[in-house]
Write a structure and sequence with these properties.
Distance between the termini: 27 Å
Largest sheet: 7 strands, mixed
Structural class: alpha+beta
Strand order of the largest sheet: 8-10-7-11-9-12-13
Number of helices: 9
Shape: globular
Strand content: 15-25%
Order of helices and strands: HEEEHEHEHEEHHEHEHEHEEE
Number of strands: 13
Length: about 350
Amino acid sequence: MKNDHTSNNDIILMGHGGGGLLTNKIIDEIILNELGNPILAKLDDGACITVPQQELVMTTDSYVINPIFFPGGDIGGLAVCGTVNDLAMQGAEPKYMSLALIIEEGLPLSDLRRIIRSIKNTSVETGVLIVTGDTKVIEKCKRGLHEHTEKDRSASPENSGIFINTTGIGLKLPGVNTAVSNARPGDSVIITGSMGDHGMAIMNIREGLNLESGLISDVAPLWSMINSLLNDIPGIHCLRDPTRGGVAAALCDVAKTSSCGIMINESSLPVKNTVRGACDILGLDPLNVANEGKAIIICRNQDEEKTLQIIKKHNLGRDACVIGKVTDEPAGTVLLKTRIGGERIIDVPTGETLPRIC
């Protein structure tokens, strides 16, 4: 049911996606007003950009998180951070980004303005330009992507939402190769901070856990921290952001692609007490919970101390620590050394344990 105080002038209507005056009103008054730059202002169907003779990195992703606002962030900032971080993990400076909005009718215009403002603030912080995009409006509750449940309704009272698709382009730093296939036996495995903050912040809302303290998303752009690291140690072997599937999925990808083993120590894994408590309530392993502001760094053993020194100087890396080592065997397998001295295999999650956390 719509709020009695909400008028058609305050919400997204199907007409906003029709390509006419209402569409132009959103573009002019909200999007260009916040994100305008000489390239985007041309409003062509594509952006013409000039780049130096340098290797380009391109990434694309879609964001369907529910709720669209959460402790520590929102879907707009998340979309920019996710795109920037994917480029950063390839050693690429983020330069340009496309932005496609799929908006459900009924979304309050105030929410759209808030999301666009968040996109603007995060893009300014990271130095990435929004250079092209698209806007579509879909009917409420008539698409298979997002069937609303009672928990969805409590998380999003207006029962309306928005999806965002992005494509990012970055310039790869010369001499840098941080592919997940580069891990070598003897390498150190470092994580830049605590695990599971984003996923548990979302699940606290979705599951109505009412845990007030400490459950705040870690969503953040990582490029400035990674840039400092790669400028000093261009020979870093692997970078990976442990988003969907968490640290477990990221490390399993590295082990499989590099044909090596990885041994991590349970006693070294950084997990906040509030996150661990929420995981215990929901029966989740923090290793499988998504992060949106952390990076896994795999470097040569001799670079371990210097890598930690550089990362810890950055606000996002103050709690960086070594969590394990790359091994010869068993190839393609991640093992966890437990606190009592045993070992267990860390598997990739078989399905999506946390729905719509990005």
